[in-house]
Design brief:
The chain has 270 residues and is an alpha+beta fold. It has six helices and 13 strands.
């Protein structure tokens, strides 16, 4: 029965696929059939793979990855196991995933948003496109009735789509909040830095940069390496120290370097 099902699935995806399209047909009980074109690897979907067959290329199996040696069109088929009604897939390129689940099961979660969701006979045909797939379905059979009606199926599809849209809106809102908060922090830092640069008094960072030049630093890069401060911070401190006369700016052969000029009052008194 399993081999009959496998042959049926191969015929199904042959009818569904167009030229050059990558696809993986996944049946709820663990049968997987994959069609690939001009790729060098494939990440196996599911756990405990058995009865693995690869047509169209020699290959190596390393961990959960198949690596192909040759061939532009490769067909892969195998049996696997999906624990607790969970189907996960992560590939290094985009695929069209065809997921086949009995209609007397209940779809709980699908990501990304399905391209289509329809019933054919007693089976859900779920189509998802992307480089990843997450499907969660309940295997509990209903006590009455013969599965979902087309109206129920439409409602499920709408819920899946609206949940995906809501998740995207929430993600964008949180991202904007984080960006705004980060921008506010940066603005406060810049305002505080500008105020510090405007004064003639030397703060800890000014003294740290000056100390680096007193110990032998000659260039901006030297001071960044010695102080561990960000390059932009060191650059602004150098400009302040030059303006106040604590550093003297020199140019020689197109290179810019600095030497210590006057010292702070407390250094001159020691």
């Amino acid at each position: 029965m399993r081999y009959v099902l496998m042959a049926t699935l191969v015929l199904l995806i042959s009818a569904l696929m167009t030229s050059g399209q990558q696809s993986a047909t996944i049946y709820y009980n663990g049968t997987v059939v994959v069609q690939l074109n001009n790729v060098t690897s494939f990440h196996l979907i599911g756990n405990n793979v058995s009865n693995l067959k690869v047509i169209g290329s020699r290959f190596n199996l390393t961990g959960d990855y198949l690596y192909f040696h040759n061939g532009t069109k490769v067909t892969i088929s195998y049996d696997t196991y999906f624990p607790n009604g969970v189907i996960n897939a992560n590939e290094p390129y985009n695929l069209t995933f065809y997921v086949l689940i009995p209609s007397y099961y209940s779809l709980v979660y699908v990501s990304p948003t399905p391209v289509s969701l329809e019933t054919k006979g007693s089976t859900y045909n779920l189509t998802v496109k992307g480089n990843s797939l997450d499907v969660l379905f309940s295997t509990a059979k209903p006590t009455s009735g013969g599965g979902l009606s087309q109206e129920d199926l439409t409602v499920i599809t709408i819920l899946i789509v609206t949940d995906s849209i809501l998740a995207f809106v929430i993600f964008e809102y949180l991202r904007m909040r984080r960006s705004k908060s980060k921008g506010d922090i940066e603005n406060v830092r810049e305002d505080r830095e500008e105020a510090e640069l405007a004064t003639q008094e030397l703060n800890d960072r000014d003294l740290l940069v000056l100390e680096a030049f007193k110990k032998g630093s000659k260039t901006l890069a030297d001071a960044v390496r010695v102080t561990g401060l960000p390059k932009s911070t060191v650059y602004r401190r150098i400009k302040k120290l030059v303006k106040l006369g604590y550093l003297i700016e020199r140019r020689e052969g197109g290179k810019l370097w600095y030497e210590v000029g006057k010292l702070p009052d407390k250094d001159q008194n020691t």
